[in-house]
Amino acid sequence: MNTLSYKTVSANKATVDKQWVLVDADGQTLGRLSSIVAKLIRGKYKPNYTPHVDCGDNVVIINAEKINLTGKKWTDKSYIRHTGYPGGQRSLTATEMFEKDPTRLIEKAVKGMLPKNKLGSALYKNLYVYAGGEHGQEAQQPTTINLKDLL
Questions:
Q1: Which end of the chain has fewer surrounding CB within 10 Å, N or C?
Q2: With the CA atoms of 121, 138, 99 and 42 taken in that order, what torsion angle do they form, in degrees rounded to the nearest 10?
């Protein structure tokens, strides 16, 4: 038997089947929603998943203003950044960040669950988060996904 009867098929940019997916964040917990969305963006639910290729879906999240955080995370969870200058460390609580822009909570949570390299930066561009129920991707006709089915 000189030839193999099976071959491992590895996806590439030309063979990837990217879909548009709509997720409603109304009443969802931030971390649980973010982990599922990160897997959708990465493509881990697909049978032809390849770790080094962008084979995930484009995800549109609506109703980011209705997201839930459990426990005391609204006051105790802090987001720390640095300006680059000496003594330039700044921090915001989850409540302060939510009041400025509710979409940033979900964006930061999902971005933290993606790879920290060029692929992760490319994957992050497949995420679209909107505070209200309206979104700007009607032309792509995204399919609505129930997150309870993916758990």
A1: N
A2: -30
d(CA 126, CA 75): 30
Could you tell me if 28 and 34 are in contact, meaning their C-beta atoms sit under 8 angstroms apart?
no
Task: Mention every residue, 6+ apart, whose C-beta is less than 8 A from residue 129.
Answer: 60, 61, 64, 103, 106, 107
Residue pLDDT, tens place only, 80-125 = 999 999 999 999 999 999 999 999 999 999 999 999 999 999 999 9
User: Are 114 and 41 spatial neighbours (Cβ–Cβ below 8 Å)?
Assistant: yes
Structure tokens at 67: 């997201």
pTM of the predicted model as reported, rounded to 2 decimal places: 0.90
Give the residue among 56, 54, 20, 36 at the shortest CA–CA distance from 150: 36
Contact 67, 104 (CB under 8 A): no
What string of DSSP letters covers 51-102? Answer: TTS----EEEEE-GGG-B--TTHHHH-EEEEE-SSTT-EEEEEHHHHHHH-H
d(CA 55, CA 16): 6
Sheet holding 20-24, edge to edge: 127-129, 58-62, 20-24, 143-144
